[in-house]
Description:
It comes from miscellaneous Crenarchaeota group-1 archaeon SG8-32-3. This is Winged helix-turn-helix domain-containing protein. The structure is a single chain. The chain is an all-alpha fold. It has one domain (3-71). The chain is built from 5 helices and no strands. Helix 3 crosses helix 5 and helix 4 (45-52) crosses helix 5.
Amino acid sequence: xxxxxxxxxxxxxxxxxxxxxxxxxxxxxxxxxxxxxxxxxxxxxxxxxxxxxxxxxxxxxxxxxxxxxxxxxx
Length: 74
């Protein structure tokens, strides 16, 4: 299932809220932005989840949010 397919799911907003409630979410997102994406910009959600020992859902949300940040003008 692609990220775009996940975004269309009815439960996507609930997943995002759940991920945002995680204590480790801000640290995982910052580390992904500042370290992991610098090393491997095309990392998959599955690879990220395995590397940081997090859920696939959290990895999907983080990668989606970071992708949106890169798209938006600074």
